[in-house]
């Protein structure tokens, strides 16, 4: 009899507690408390801005129950990935990837419509007259090519790799690394896609005779050690690339380059991460349009995520984890629209500010239009706005990506090079 009374009492207690628990799980924080009440946020049972707790909840959902490493359809959560990752026939229809670009590079087709060129040889022995089957041979052809790889390979470039117009480098289906040598250069060309590779430990390499197209091999000076450099080029999409350990910068977009989207990339272990505009005197960069979307900037990154000059930049739905100087910086009156990013500051008090105005007094930078909209700030992070509301031109508006309401740590969790198996969703 006593046992039955205990069960009845426990049942009543449980019925009372469950609504209270669930009310706590799904109630929204009061407006204005997101930055101030850190302790309360950390103590919450499930905090929608906490990667561990939200990921655990997402993993238990019917649509998110499979392991992340399998890269199933349910894992494609941002609008670029949703376009292609759920399709098991991606290997037979590789060029459909070109239909998925968003942001200012929308319309970039790379090698779409051209032949499939398969890299079979990882060597780079002759940069003036590269062998057929090498990556350098493929990127220097004068026709559209969709470049793939027949197996896993590490390519150590003897000199910088100069990519010609209308090319796609597509690493899906193999583990492709560009490492321990020269980096990639997109110089004064149009219509390039770089997807699904890992670029790391790039070094300063000697110059020399380097093939740039079928009809020309020019003399190049010593490289500067950038992992990936876009110079004077238009319509460039860089997607699902992992970049780390460059001798200089990881990714530079400079000298009248425009219509560029950098998406789903994973940046690690580097000081000068991303430069958008190389010099304050390069006023031609005022027409630069760059989208930075769905990327992850990891704890080993120090600064320039990005560092902007002159142009118009949308920085949307990126994950910033414990930068060591600043996250977003600039000079020479750039317009920066920061939307739906997550900024997790390091513990040091001096590292809380997201933004940095370089080489300018407040009387100057207070008029620069830097705007934060629906960003998430954790561990004391804060964004210093300036210049009032941003009113984009029609051209600037046309390339904007609507910020997603899905938590950023979910949108970006598969940033970088993916492991894709033919016949399966990636």
Proportion of helical residues: 10-25%
What radius of gyration results from the CA coordinates?
Answer: 24 Å
CATH fold topology = Pectate Lyase C-like
Shape: globular
Strands in their spatial order, largest beta sheet: 1-2-5-8-13-16-20-24-27-30
Please report which band the strand proportion falls in: under 5%, 5-15%, 15-25%, 25-35%, 35-45% or over 45%: 25-35%
CATH class: Mainly Beta
Average pLDDT works out at: 86
Q: What structural class should be given to the helix and strand makeup?
A: alpha/beta
CATH homologous superfamily caption: Single-stranded right-handed beta-helix, Pectin lyase-like
Number of helical segments?
8
Distance from N terminus to C terminus (CA atoms, Å) equals 59 Å
* Domain unit count: 1
Q: Give the tally of β-strands.
A: 31
Please describe the biggest sheet, giving its number of strands, its sense, and whether it closes into a barrel: 10 strands, parallel
Q: Are there runs of 5+ residues with pLDDT below 50, and where?
A: 1-74
**CATH-scheme architecture:** 3 Solenoid
Keywords: Calcium, Disulfide bond, Glycoprotein, Lyase, Metal-binding, Signal
Organism: Lactuca saligna
GO molecular function, one term: metal ion binding
Family: Belongs to the polysaccharide lyase 1 family. Amb a subfamily.
């Amino acid at each position: 009899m006593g046992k039955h009374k205990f069960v009845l009492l426990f049942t009543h207690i449980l019925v009372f507690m469950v609504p209270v628990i669930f009310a706590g799980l799904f109630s929204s924080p009061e407006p204005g408390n997101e930055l101030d009440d850190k302790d309360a946020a950390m103590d919450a049972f499930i905090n929608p801005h906490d990667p561990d707790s939200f990921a655990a909840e997402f993993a238990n959902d019917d649509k998110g129950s499979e392991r992340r490493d399998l890269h199933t359809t349910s894992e494609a959560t941002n609008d670029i990935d949703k376009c292609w990752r759920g399709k098991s026939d991606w290997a037979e229809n590789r060029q459909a990837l070109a239909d998925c670009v968003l942001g200012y590079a929308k319309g970039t087709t790379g090698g779409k419509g051209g032949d499939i060129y398969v890299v079979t040889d990882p060597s780079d022995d002759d940069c003036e007259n590269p062998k057929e089957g090498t990556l350098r041979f493929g990127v220097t052809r004068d026709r559209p090519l969709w470049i793939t790889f027949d197996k896993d390979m590490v390519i150590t470039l003897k000199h910088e790799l100069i990519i010609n117009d209308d090319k796609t480098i597509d690493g899906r289906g193999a583990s492709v690394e560009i490492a321990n040598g020269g980096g990639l250069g997109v110089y004064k060309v149009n219509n390039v896609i770089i997807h699904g590779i890992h670029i790391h430990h790039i070094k300063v390499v000697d110059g020399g005779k380097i093939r740039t197209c079928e009809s020309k091999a020019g003399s190049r000076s010593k490289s500067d050690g950038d992992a990936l450099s876009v110079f004077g080029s238009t319509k460039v999409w860089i997607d699902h690339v992992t970049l780390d350990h460059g001798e200089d910068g990881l990714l530079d977009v400079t000298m009248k380059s425009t219509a560029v989207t950098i998406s789903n990339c994973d940046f690690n272990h580097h000081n000068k991460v991303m430069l958008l505009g190389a010099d304050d005197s390069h006023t031609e960069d005022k027409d630069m349009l760059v989208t930075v979307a769905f990327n992850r900037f990891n704890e080993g990154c120090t600064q320039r995520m990005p560092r902007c000059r002159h142009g118009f930049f949308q920085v949307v739905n990126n994950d910033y984890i414990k930068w060591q100087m600043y996250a977003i910086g600039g000079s020479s009156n750039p317009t920066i629209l920061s939307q739906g990013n997550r900024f997790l500051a390091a513990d040091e008090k001096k590292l809380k500010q997201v933004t940095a105005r370089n080489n300018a007094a407040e009387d100057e930078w207070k008029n620069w239009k830097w705007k934060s909209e629906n960003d998430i700030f954790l561990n004391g992070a804060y964004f210093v706005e300036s210049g009032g509301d941003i009113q984009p031109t029609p051209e600037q508006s046309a390339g904007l990506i609507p910020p997603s309401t899905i938590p950023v740590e979910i949108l970006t969790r598969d940033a970088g090079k993916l492991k894709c198996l033919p016949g399966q969703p990636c």
